[in-house]
Amino acid sequence: MAKASAKAKKENAIVRYFKATHSELKKVRWPTRQEALNLTLIVVGVTAFMAALLGLIDYIFAKMFSLIFR
Questions:
Q1: What is this structure's pTM?
Q2: I need a labelling partner for 21 at 20 to 30 A (CA). Which of 6, 14, 64, 70 fits?
Q3: Neighbours of 60 (CB within 10 A)
């Protein structure tokens, strides 16, 4: 009897969780297709810029170390 009650409580908790999640997802303001595209392009651009910058810094340090430790 106690196991059945505990199992029912656990299932109710799971059901409550999914209902609450569904309710919260309804409140979300999802971006438009254009907003999502613009933000994606910004992220890709910043990522490419940072990769190039870090690659340049790595190249400079590699050259400096090769000159120092000849």
A1: 0.63
A2: 6
A3: 10
